[in-house]
Structure prediction request, 687 residues.
Amino acid sequence: MRTTRTMRSGRSLRNWRRLRFAVPAGVAAVAVSLPLSLTVQVAAATPAVADLAPSTSVPQVIPKPVSMTVGQGTFSLTSTTRIVVATGSEAALPVANDLAAYLQPATGFPLPVVTGTPQSGDIELVLGNPGTLQADPDGEGYQLDTTTSGVTLEAITPHGLYNGVQTIRQLLPAWITSSSLQPGPWTMPVVQITDYPRYSYRGLMLDIARHYEPPSAVEQLINQAAADKINTLHLHLSDDQGFRIVINGFPNLTTIGGEGSVGTGGRTMDPGGYWTQADYQAVVADAAAHFMTVIPEVDSPGHNNAIIMSEYNDTANPLLSGNPQDINCSANNPPVWDYTQDVGYSAMCPASTNTTAIMTAIIDQLTAMSPGLYYDVGGDEVPTTLLSQSQYASFINSEAGIIQGQGKTVMGWADIAGAGTNLAGPSVAEYWNPASGSHSGTVTATEAVQKGMKIVMAPANHAYLDQRYQKNVPAPLGQTWACKSGCDVDQFYNWDPGSYVTGVTDANVIGVEGAMWGETVVNMSDVDYMVFPRLAALAEIGWSPKAARTSLRSPAYTDFIGRLSAQGARLMAAGINFYPSPEVPWSLALAAPDVTASSQDQVSGPVATLAAPGYAPSAATATINWGDGTSSAATVSGTAPTSTTINGLYTLAGTHTYSASGTYQATVTVSAKGAATVTAHFTVTAP
Ligand code: TNX
Prediction:
């Protein structure tokens, strides 16, 4: 239905939708029962949520495992712990090395990776076939047993082990994510976890077309998304404002097409850039090392002014006919650059052999560099004023032929399911419209199902990571068309991919994807602020069993934000920007290394580091008990949060002079309104 597709492009969908997300004024704290009858008090909703912070003794794992039983006691990771790959499981060695690499910076332990039989205190990795995982056809699941004397992680595939490694990281204290040495101790609760995904596709889309991002920045995002068990990176490589990957034979695509980005902050155009093919291959390899598959997308036949601007005058190109102007079916002829956020004005002409030559080169080269199953044609938002439905369908069909000829499966925005396209399963339609139930806006999803296509669910009002969290938050980042009153964590969490659209069930849905569109985000700090923590909500929806995720009051949601509360300090320790949503009762985390006093038995200066997500330094009250019967206040200093950046880690400093030499057991305690008080112990040696 072309009208549906063109709705948003004419901005009429944005204006037409009056989506409202009512937020109850005050929501009471509820008690959530956990396995083994542990009970944790978590609080729901904004803004006075955090009065009851969750107990830290309950493992706070996201995505929530299929089953978790919490036992008594803890396992201690020490400098003598080894990572042991069971004999016969040698294919697990790369994952064992990953685990060692994750644990080394913060602990300082160069944990040896060995093959053989574990001893007390070791972490063992086994490739096997535990009966509990037989419901998991992709082999992404794992079984994790932690006892006081050791850890055993078992999975069917290395990918399953890797997913288990991400859970191990979350069972350790928040500071494990730090790239610098931290004091520990490094304990994990005794747990038995059986875990595998609900959906095989758990994606993050990044638009490097609207704003260029360098490969190194994307690799940092891969690293963070992998920790949430996201397994797909969908790269939106081309749009009206930029073409970002070198295509041999068509140098103009990047030298001209890569010149700029969407203008922000009063600029007509922001700086552009592009990746070499070696850059792309390195990102693909880095993703693979994180068990993530890259899906390349060059949007077509619309959203491609950058291609048209690059090739329209490329008359000397031997791969073109000498008159490539016939590629242009845009609203403007000749085409003109438009670095605004406009959409729906560009289209390539399906009948042109020059169009075919350009698109064939792009598809051939990108599929050759992409080991995954899918190539994404885009296919969204081409107004019928530019191409008729049959012209549109003929374009998609011809691209599908090229893609399938390269042994790949076609993926695209759900618009590609419209009349005349001859797509079938296993082709994938990504559903982006906010419409749910049997609203007319759901037609692309139902058309796709009728064709037998598979569906990735990404309804814009639940999965578009470029939408603002709240009305005007964060200004100046973000869009509002799908989320007029904001799409905070609750909106990303409280929906179900398998019942969102009437007639589209888990028999059709292969997974979910968060889409990080790039119009307003100029660097990776901005991207991270929009992506985190909402990606965690999508990761849980994609991975964890179906739950009654219905509203701010649902037990599933309160349980989720209780677990999310622990993630803030982890992100801070890792140096990742994020939005400290007021829906979440963020936990504080404190690290205090041992101290040696001066020869005059004096301590003066920093004694601890505090992660206090969203709090200003002045909001935290810190006290040091020096262990000799005296206490004094500590100063809290550091960088406060801004409208687009999380606050920095805070430094706690104090001054004290001991009256006698000796060894003192000191504590530092921090309280902040709405968070549970935290305490860290440290030893002071007064010589
Ligand atoms: C929709 S719906 C888009 C993108 C924009 C985004 C902005 C769809 C497939 N595409 O072109 O960047 O909205 O929110």
